[in-house]
Amino acid sequence: MPYVNAKEMLTDAKKNHYAVGHFNLNNMESVRAFLLAAEEKKSPIILGVSGGTAKYMGGYKTIADMVRDFMDFLKITVPVCTHVDHGTYEEALAAIEGGFSSVMFDGSKYSIDENIEKTRHIVELAHAKNITVEAEVGAIGGEEDGRISMGECADPEQCKRIADLGIDFLAAGIGNIHGKYPANWPGLRFDVLAAIQEKTGDLPLVLHGGSGIPDEMVRKAITLGVSKVNVNTECQIAFTEATRKFIEEGKDREGRGFTPRALLAPGLEATKAKCIEKMELFGSVGRA
Ligand code: 13P
Predict the structure, then answer these.
(1) Residue numbers annotated as active site
(2) CA 77 → CA 39, 70, 135, 282, distances in Å?
(3) Atom of ligand 1 lying closest to residue 236 CA
(4) Of 9, 63, 170, 253, which one is least surrounded by beta carbons within 10 A?
């Protein structure tokens, strides 16, 4: 079964100048939607899980088992990676124990020395189990799981120090933020991205806050070494708008439209369609 860590897919993406999409799980419908999208488009995929989602969906082991069982049931043949999104130290450890194939340890809120020490320990534990590690330098702004911060730009020298720990891919702030971008957002800092790529060489870079960034900027970021793009908000909005439309059209009051499966089916389809749209933008279609 192609339940894998992110090493091979991101190495290939970096070499061939495309990016693999990281799509955040929020509920059971999103598991199904993303797996079906990946299989239909023959694309590798990374399923991201925040601390909030982990709590909601029964913990890391439940999610890892559910993804593997769904892959089996849906006869998924493309590579699928389960990945902790912005994990605390404790969350990363819990996911390593729970059977995730990849973890992000987000130590960007610590001093660089403390970030390095904690990341080093996570790398040791994860690599011993063939689990890949994403680290972060320079906080990504916006709101995620109730945490709000402004977008920072990572220091390329600090990125190099973290890269030298043997991490597998790196999230570096380049003015990107989670959630909706404000109208006066100045855009991605490509000069900072180019300087980071110069210092970190072949290491795949990660662009967080993938929702709402204009397509040309995403394409340009990929040419400058971004090999993984994280998307959550746009898929959530697609799900919610489709569900609202179903109710506003009174379809929940027709026939068996009241059943939860019928109510959530349009949201599932909309999530899948949004995921496919992003895979096409990132260039990962047909790469599995
Ligand atoms: P968006 O919600 O802005 O798409 O960001 C997702 C993300 O970066 C998850 O880490």
Answers:
(1) 85
(2) 7, 12, 28, 20
(3) 2
(4) 253
